[in-house]
Amino acid sequence: MALRNMREQGDAILGKISKDVKEVTPRVRELIEDMLDTMYEANGVGLAAVQVGVLKRIFVVDVTGEDPHVFINPKILETSGEQTGHEGCLSLPGKTGIVTRPNHVKVAAYDENMEYFELEGEELLARAICHENDHLDGHLYVEKVEGDLMDVEDLQEEEERQAEDTLTTE
Ligand code: NI
Questions:
Q1: Helix, strand, coil shares of the chain as percentages rounded to 5?
Q2: Are strands 104-110 and 58-61 parallel, antiparallel or unpaired?
Q3: Catalytic residue chosen out of the listed positions 23, 30, 41, 132
Q4: Rounded to whole angstroms, how far apart are CA atoms 169 and 52?
Q5: Could you identify which of 13, 52, 88, 125 might form a hypothetical disulfide with 4, taking C-beta atoms 3.0 to 4.6 angstroms apart as the criterion?
C-alpha cells in the first residue's frame, strides 16, 4: 500500500487539463492502486489522478467502500434529473458546499485492463462521477457551490442543534 501526496486548493495543477491515457503501463497500474489506497485512507468516495499530481484522465470512485470503479479516459454520455446536496473534495479538506448535479449519469470509460465499459449511476454515484470528471478538466466543485463554502465541523454542529431542537419541540 502506498499513499500519495494530496494536492490541495491553491495548487496550480488542479486547474490544468489532464491528458488521455494511451496504455496501462506498470506505472499507470501502480498509480491506480495508489489512488485507491489514498482515497480509502482519506475516507473519500472519489479521487482523480490530478489530485495526486498526475495529469492523466483517470479517476476512481467507490461510494460504498466495497465497490471500486476505475475510469480511464471517461466520457459522460447522458445525464438526467437533478440533485442538490452537500459535496466535499479531498483537495479541500474540512470544507463542504451545496452543489446541484444530475441525479443520473451514463458514463463510458476504460477500466484498469483498458477494457471499455459503460456504467449508469444515480444519486451519490452520479454526483461522484460528475465531480471527478470535472477534475480532469481542471474544475473544482467550489465553482458550482450555491451560497458559501462551510466548515464540515460547523455543519455537523448545526445538524446536531437542529436534531436537538426537533427533540425538544416534539
Ligand atoms: Ni474532488
A1: 35, 30, 35
A2: unpaired
A3: 132
A4: 47
A5: 52
Distance (Å, rounded) from C-alpha 78 to C-alpha 131? 15
pLDDT at 60: 98
pLDDT at 169: 67
Bridge partners of 84, per DSSP, are 100
CA atoms of 65 and 43, how far apart (whole Å) = 9
3-state secondary structure (DSSP) of residue 8:
coil
CA of 9 to the centre of ligand 1 (A): 10
- Tell me how far the alpha carbon of residue 81 lies from the centroid of ligand 1, in angstroms: 22
pTM of this prediction?
0.93
* Segment 23-46, tens digit of pLDDT: 999 999 999 999 999 999 999 999
Residue 115 CA to ligand 1 center (angstroms) comes to: 25
Three-state secondary-structure class, residue 33: helix
Cell output for 167: 427533540
Instruction: State the distance from the centre of ligand 1 to the C-alpha of 168, rounded, in angstroms.
Output: 38
Please give the distance of CA 49 from its chain centroid, rounded to a whole number.
11
State yes or no: is 160 an active-site residue: no
**pLDDT value at position 163?**
87
- Residue 168 to residue 63: CA distance in whole angstroms: 34
